[in-house]
């Protein structure tokens, strides 16, 4: 059944008649095209160490050593938030800019390709209703985002009057007018995601 409607899908769709057989000499097949026996492209066989994880977009990469230094090894004093996917830490980057460093759980089943897709989405979603992505780190099984620091906390913190960290002080209670303004901004952000991204 289709997701939108009542028509039935064909249980066994016909094969694609436009599919061409693979060409011989494919560089990814391990044949005569110059790849390795494992099917890797030319030039990748003789690398030392793990592959460099730099994405082909204009978002700065941050080193894990630098982030460890700036967050006191991701210690409790720098912790400003926790969620189901990881923790958020406060740091001041080498540029002097304040940042919220979101370190995803290493036990998360998300592959590097999912992280890469998230970095690309954040990079292209530049809007007044989103915090900006300042950089990322993809080192030693760590997946880390660096966002612009929101001085009033996350949207959840603002709406519920508390920060998502144990022992945090309660925040201010919002008026209905303030809540309406936040809802309008959130709706504009969602509209941007659906229309522009």
From TrEMBL:
Keywords: ATP-binding, Kinase, Nucleotide-binding, Phosphoprotein, Transferase. InterPro entries: Kinase-like_dom_sf, Plant_StressResp_Kinase, Prot_kinase_dom, Protein_kinase_ATP_BS, Ser-Thr/Tyr_kinase_cat_dom. Residues 17-27 have a biased composition (Low complexity). GO terms for molecular function: ATP binding; protein kinase activity. Residues 1-55 are annotated as: Disordered. ATP binds at residue 103. It holds the Pfam family PK_Tyr_Ser-Thr. PROSITE patterns: PROTEIN_KINASE_ATP, PROTEIN_KINASE_DOM. Residues 74-197 form the Protein kinase domain. This is Probable protein kinase at2g41970. It comes from Phtheirospermum japonicum.
